[in-house]
């Protein structure tokens, strides 16, 4: 979500205008979209040195900043989405005792890539757009869910400017009759908390003060209890993978970005006015996978290990939400070796 930055404005708490709801629906399919060259360079881990003008800082691998926004395959636009109702096998009762199991093959899960190629979200400490991080991780999550039998999982990539894209996302989810909606984002901090540094000869900004994931749900969502349950499952899955949650949203220093912490163990926050959470007609949650303005965590965000952990946490959460058994976490290699003997 990263609502803090000013260079690429994309506030998710802007009320929808009446006519803005009437939007074309993005086709729901795995699209041939690729991360930018900057992000791919990040994945290659080409080592370079950078110096901070303020203080001695860790040496980080260096991505190459792209000189122009990547050209993404356009999402095909349709006049209407399929109008089939949720199947009884996929429909869930309220989570808890007596929750009905879903059929993974018929369960409609929509994974929304936060921001667009035109409104890229926050910039990382190394000047890589948030959109690239969101896209790459979302693709990884969708692939993992499909591999686990959730065949109708879809990747949602929208285009255009920030505000119109919000209505497009909501309409896509509602017209497709999704059973569950998950938005993927990466976090930043308010501008007042930024520090300056130079990366590859260019001025940039960072904040190493905070790190970790956060899950957001809206009490304005018509399925708040289910959304909260799903959010807790995601948070518990992230913590089970050894990933800490971002506690800064409870602090007074966050000002207007301060939010109520609904579950301190799972790291779930209340954010009622996020359009993609309050206007979707199904349980919905937003995952801030980590802070890309934190220089150390930014590097973790592009590692296969961190992405696999996040994808595993989300997949486990979806299985548990559906009342299905989740694979037990694997024991560390040394513990497993002892058990074998």
Walk me through the structure.
This protein has 341 residues and is an alpha/beta fold. The protein has one domain: Zn-dependent exopeptidases (Aminopeptidase). It is 28% helix and 14% strand. It has helices at residues 37-44, 130-147, 162-176, 224-240, 275-278, 295-301, 304-321, 333-340, and strands at residues 25-26, 77-78, 109-113, 154-156, 180-187, 195-199, 202-206, 214-217, 260-263, 268-270, 284-291. The strands form 3 sheets. A 7-stranded mixed beta sheet has the order 4-3-5-11-8-10-9, sandwiched between helices. The chain has a two-stranded antiparallel sheet with strand order 1-2. The chain has a two-stranded antiparallel ribbon with strand order 6-7. Helix 2 crosses helix 7 (304-321) and helix 4 crosses helix 7 (304-321). The longest helix is centred in the middle third of the chain and has 18 residues, at 130-147. The chain is globular, with a radius of gyration of 20 Å. The N and C termini lie far apart (48 Å).
CATH superfamily: Zn-dependent exopeptidases
Helix-residue proportion: 25-40%
Classification by helices and strands: alpha/beta
What's the total helix number? 8
Under the CATH scheme, the architecture is 3-Layer(aba) Sandwich
Q: Main β-sheet: number of strands, strand sense, barrel status?
A: 7 strands, mixed
**What is the CATH third-level topology name?**
Aminopeptidase
């Amino acid at each position: 979500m990263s609502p803090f930055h000013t260079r690429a404005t994309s506030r998710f708490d802007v009320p929808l205008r009446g006519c803005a709801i009437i939007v074309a629906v993005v086709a729901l399919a795995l699209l041939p979209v690729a991360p930018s060259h900057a992000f791919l360079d990040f994945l290659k881990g080409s080592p370079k040195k950078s110096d901070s003008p303020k203080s001695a800082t860790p040496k980080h691998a260096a991505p190459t900043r792209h000189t122009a926004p990547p050209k993404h395959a356009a999402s095909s636009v349709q006049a209407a989405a399929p109008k089939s109702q949720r199947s009884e096998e996929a429909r869930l009762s309220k989570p808890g005792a007596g929750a009905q199991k879903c059929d993974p093959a018929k369960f409609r899960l929509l994974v929304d890539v936060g921001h667009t190629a035109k409104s890229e979200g926050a910039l990382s400490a190394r000047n890589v757009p948030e959109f690239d991080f969101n896209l790459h991780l979302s693709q990884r999550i969708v692939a993992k869910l499909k591999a686990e039998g959730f065949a109708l999982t879809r990747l949602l990539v929208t285009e255009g400017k920030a505000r119109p894209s919000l209505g497009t996302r909501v309409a896509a989810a509602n017209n497709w009759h999704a059973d569950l909606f998950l938005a993927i984002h990466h976090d930043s901090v308010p501008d007042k908390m930024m520090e300056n540094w130079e990366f590859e000869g260019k001025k940039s900004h960072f904040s190493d003060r905070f790190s970790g994931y956060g899950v957001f749900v809206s009490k304005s969502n018509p399925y708040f209890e289910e959304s909260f349950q799903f959010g807790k499952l995601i948070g518990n899955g992230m913590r089970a993978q050894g990933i800490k949650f971002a506690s800064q949203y409870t602090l007074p220093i966050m000002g207007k970005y301060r939010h109520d912490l609904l579950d301190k163990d799972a790291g779930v926050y209340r954010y009622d006015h996020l359009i993609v959470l309050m206007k979707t007609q199904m349980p919905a949650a937003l995952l801030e996978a980590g802070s890309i303005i934190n220089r150390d965590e930014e590097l973790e965000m592009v590692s296969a290990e961190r992405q696999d952990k996040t994808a595993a946490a989300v997949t486990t959460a979806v299985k548990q939400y559906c009342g299905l058994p989740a694979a037990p976490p694997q024991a560390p290699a040394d513990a497993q070796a002892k058990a074998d003997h």
